[in-house]
TrEMBL record:
Official protein name in the record: Pyrroline-5-carboxylate reductase dimerisation domain-containing protein
GO biological process, one term: L-proline biosynthetic process
Cross-referenced Pfam families: P5CR_dimer
Entries under PANTHER family matching the protein: PYRROLINE-5-CARBOXYLATE REDUCTASE, PYRROLINE-5-CARBOXYLATE REDUCTASE 3
Gene Ontology molecular functions: pyrroline-5-carboxylate reductase activity
Keyword annotations: Oxidoreductase
Residue ranges constituting the Pyrroline-5-carboxylate reductase dimerisation domain according to the UniProt record: 96-200
Species, as recorded: Candidatus Kerfeldbacteria bacterium CG_4_10_14_0_8_um_filter_42_10
InterPro entries: 6-PGluconate_DH-like_C_sf, NAD(P)-bd_dom_sf, P5CR_dimer
Domain of life: Bacteria
Length: 206
């Protein structure tokens, strides 16, 4: 059973669905913020796995963080993991509250990269490229960066250093980013996303 309703609608799940879930069933939740305890109490089931995939699930490229109920069977955990691998890659969290961090880093993560892609797209449009070429440039840059990062067994900053030439264009861009404190602002946004995930969890599990 995969619970894919909006978190705020979970309390409205119909009684016939609740009755159809037996203790032997495996329940995988992709509802953000609804705790294992709340789901277990509602469905009277322990074989529950909370998960947080992202937008790339539909392309089998998601990063899905997950955590199982303490009394969840190994069989149910294996079944859930098999599902997550169909969606892309998976990470088992050490604690349930780490799902809030997964939400901030991976759940919302694609949007951060797409923001950069949008800036490249808009720059190209301003410089006279038509929409088709501007989209091609931004998409291919993102695709190329992903290929480099996926293929090179080093940290992102080390790849940037390899790309950057002294006195070159990349160095000029990053000097500007540093002056404008761009990194700090983006990190603040990611931290804010994590805090909001925790706030929503408290609201949904009152």
């Amino acid at each position: 059973v995969i619970l894919a309703v909006k978190p705020q609608n979970f309390i409205e799940i119909k009684e016939d669905l609740i009755q159809s879930v037996a203790a032997r069933h495996t329940v995988v939740s992709i509802m953000g913020g609804v705790s294992l305890r709340a789901i277990s109490a509602k469905l009277n089931c322990k074989n529950i796995i909370r998960s947080m995939p992202n937008l790339a699930l539909r392309y089998q490229a998601s990063l899905t963080g997950w955590f199982a109920h303490p009394e969840c069977s190994k069989r149910s955990s294996r079944t859930a993991k098999e599902i997550f691998l169909l969606w892309g890659r998976d990470i088992k969290c050490r604690k349930e509250n780490q799902l809030n961090d997964i939400t901030a880093a991976a759940g919302s993560g694609p949007s951060y990269f797409l923001m950069i892609a949008d800036l490249i797209y808009r720059y190209c449009r301003k410089r006279g490229f038509d929409e088709k070429k501007s989209l091609l440039i931004s998409r291919q840059v993102l695709k190329g960066a992903d290929r480099c990062y996926s293929s090179m067994p080093i940290k992102p900053l080390e790849i940037i250093k390899k790309i950057t030439s002294k006195g070159g264009t990349t160095e000029a861009a990053f000097k500007c980013f540093k002056q404008q404190k761009v990194e700090n602002k983006i990190m603040s946004g990611i931290i804010k996303a994590g805090k909001r995930a925790k706030e929503l969890e408290k609201i949904l599990n009152k």
